[in-house]
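Exercise 3.2. Students should predict the tertiary structure of the chain below and write it as structure tokens, then compare their answer with the key that follows.

Predict this chain's 3D structure.
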Amino acid sequence: MPTVYGRKPKFAGRETKWEKRRRKRPAKRMTSRWKGDRAKHPLAEPLTIAPAAERNAALKEGKMVFYDGNEPIAVNLFWKGGSKMPLQGIYKTSEGGYIALRYSKGIATVKMLTLSKLERTARGLEELLLAKGYAMAEADLGHMTLCPSIRGEGLGLKAVSKAERHVRAGKGGKHRFAVLAKFGKLFLKLGYRVVEQKGGTLIVEKEGKARPEDDLNKFHRIEAIDPKTGKARVFTFPVKRKRE
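Answer key:
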């Protein structure tokens, strides 16, 4: 089977252990019980990244290649092939679609993480920003929106985790900020603690390691399935923007 760069992934033609678990998991989740009669929603999952030789060839062309089974999915490292909005993840939703996570520059100097949807058109696979994509401010993590159509997939938690690691990388590992009380449970899952409450606002704080590679200005940090092991891990590539 020819691919974008003429090479099959190591596990082409058969499922990895991760893919088998992913295939069986949705049915298991939908039949399980959670909080009474409410069934768990299947979560979005990372794709298998291309083997090393194919990754290196793709990087030279400003792309990264992933596999959904035997199907190659080529995604620009930067938005529309330019030098903005570096790719920070791509996930397959429970409905079979693909959502890309990117780091972008918003209004003024505010940085944020946004979500886009990959759609198949007559011209091939196109990437479109979601009208109400996820937004995480760099200065504080308390501002966010998530498109209703993709809620319950675990994408919000992934975006928050990535954003807080990014902020921690530039703040020596410790930071606190204000967040609406309705998002309190989300940050408690990430290990934050509430230090103060003011009406409908919580002041949350967390301390942890400050890893330079978590700086999204400098690195692509992409969660994907390793074709060698069949297990998920984070792949790191330096951000190399073109001169504008």
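Discussion points: The longest strand covers residues 111-121. The helical segments are 17-31, 52-60, 155-170, 184-189.
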